[in-house]
Amino acid sequence: MSEFPFSSALITGASSGIGEVMARRLAGAGVRVVVVARREDRLQALADEFDDVEVMAADLLTMKGQRAVVARIQSDSDPIELVDNNAGFGTNGELHTLDPERLADEVELNVAALTRLSHAALEVMVPRGSGWLLNVSSVASFQPAPKLAVYAATKVYVTSWSESLHEEAKPYGVHVTALCPGLTPTEFQSVSNTEDYATEFPAFAWTSREQVVDEGLSAVVANRAVAVPGAQYKVMSAAVNVTPRWIRRRVSAMVQRS
Q: Please, which residues bridge with residue 35 across strands?
């Protein structure tokens, strides 16, 4: 019997990073897992290690991919009880130097796809009277982030969106949580061109993928609106709430220039 109150889960972005660790954690605990990503070979390698992992290759930058995942979330024959919206990426650099098409894709994946999948989840969970929705955001959602401006803005949406849904869904027995990790070693750094973070930030600034996953799962089970893994980021997020916005902007800009 699973240690979790849900017996099935769908995880986007499951081919690497936090999503892969989430899939391993749940599958290892006996939860039936649907893993979603573009890289089918990686998903299949993951599925080969566990008894009950379903592979779903889908590109969430396309409407075809989004519709396919929506349909799987809303399947009557094999219901999904936990949806983990983990897929997303960032782009580092001054806005005027960046590819606008890539930025549009970033918004599509981080915001539009997450919105459609969250809607699909609640559309079946609310009438059912139970369900769990975990949206992966970032501590970048708590303050401006020069050179990661689009990424931070998309995560502001994810956190605010999830907090709103948390209150909407609570009376129906559905749990909604925004998971807001800080620096975590994943493929995000290579994709977003922030590999230098590994040397620029000290070891204590980093949280492990396993810590992030465990915090996220604990939070969504307990129905906490926002989860911030790591004591250092809990302190930071609390401090941000009482810091004037102009100071947040200046500090963030200085960190990016250092």
A: 11, 55
pLDDT digits (tens, 9 = 90+) for 44-77: 999 999 989 999 999 999 999 999 999 999 999 9
Alpha-carbon separation of residue 37 from 11, 20, 46, 52, 258 (angstroms): 9, 10, 12, 17, 35
Instruction: Spell out a b/e string for 206-231, using b for 16 or more CB atoms within 10 Å of the CB, else e.
Output: bbebeebbebbbebbbeebbbbbbbe
- Does residue 154 contact residue 165 with C-beta atoms inside 8 Å? no
Residue 151 near residue 110 (C-beta atoms within 8 A): yes
Distance between CA atoms of 66 and 139, rounded to whole angstroms? 26
Per annotation, catalytic residue among 151, 157, 172, 233: 151
Predicted confidence (pLDDT) per residue in 207-232, tens digit: 888 999 999 999 999 999 999 998 88
Terminal CA-CA length for the chain: 50
Active site residue 151: yes
Task: Give this prediction's pTM.
Answer: 0.88
Sheet (strand 8-12) strand order:
53-57, 32-37, 8-12, 82-85, 131-136, 174-179, 226-227
